[in-house]
Amino acid sequence: MNLPVGIALYADSRDVKAFFWVALGVLVVFIPTIFVGKAIALLPVFWVRIIAANFLLWTKA
């Protein structure tokens, strides 16, 4: 998953726990993403497009 990040942290700290923390960080991101994805799937396509367009316009400003 994030092996290069784990290798960089291991090289810096010389501690094997760096790989554990990287794996934990991946889980912290993926688990909420699954639930948010399920919630987005329940919305009508029109609202998903409006929200996505708003995000795109907001990030370009």
3D architecture notes:
- This protein starts with a helix and ends with a helix.
- The chain contains 3 helices and no strands.
- The chain is elongated, with a radius of gyration of 18 Å.
- The longest helix has 26 residues.
- By secondary structure, it is mostly helical.
- The protein has one domain.
- 0% of the residues are buried.
Main sheet attributes: strand count, strand direction, barrel closure: none
Could you say how many structural domains there are in total? 1
**What's the helix count?**
3
* Derived structural class: mainly alpha
Strand content: under 5%
Distance between the termini: 32 Å
| Percent helix range | over 70%
Radius of gyration: 18 Å
Poorly predicted parts = none
- How would you describe the shape? elongated
What is the number of strand segments? 0
Order of helices and strands: HHH
Average of the residue pLDDT scores: 84
